[in-house]
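Supplementary Methods, section 5.1.

A reviewer requested that the exact input to the structure prediction be made available. We therefore reproduce it here, unchanged from the version used in the analyses.
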Amino acid sequence: MPQINAPGPGTSEPGIPFQFTAIGTGWQIDTTDALPGRLRSEILGLAEDFDRTWSRFRADSLVAEVAHAPGSLTRRAGDGRVPRP
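The structure derived from this sequence is encoded token-by-token as follows.
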């Protein structure tokens, strides 16, 4: 799960980067204005969704499920998302 290294929602000041750990590495988003708490939460949610799907190090990821399950996985055309088995 992503971890925030910056101040919590509503406490950051302009010029302070938004730093967090996700997908096995540190991230930093620099902006001229502080990111609102809701936007930071959405960014962390996207990172968590990506990690939950594609991480080979998480037992609960789609990659781990595919690696340990027999059969095949078919992607639906159009939306670019891989369905969970």
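Residues 3-68 form one domain. These observations are discussed further in the main text.
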